[in-house]
Amino acid sequence: MANQKDISSIKNNIPISEKYMLTIYEASAYFNIGVKKLRRMAENNEGRFAFYMGNRYLIVRTKFENYIEQLIMDEFDVNEDE
């Protein structure tokens, strides 16, 4: 049976790009978005790409990537219509 030290060692050795869920700080570093902005985005989009687990928000990396791509495409479509 793995003890707590083994689990935290494994968790810290996984690259952020391979993690399914990211903390606000990991997502902030990975996506180059400020912590406060990302926390606000998580609060406003809970269930879409963010989940509140225990006492922290977790970001589902793949869903957040899709969300960002959709924002870019929506912005691109608006600019094309003008």
TrEMBL record:
The keyword Plastid does not apply. The lineage of its organism: Bacteria, Bacillati, Bacillota, Clostridia, Eubacteriales. InterPro entries: SinI_DNA-bd, Tn1545/Tn916_Xis, Tn916-Xis. One of its GO terms (molecular function) is DNA binding. Keywords: DNA-binding. Transmembrane segments: none annotated. Pfam families: Tn916-Xis. This is Excisionase family DNA-binding protein.
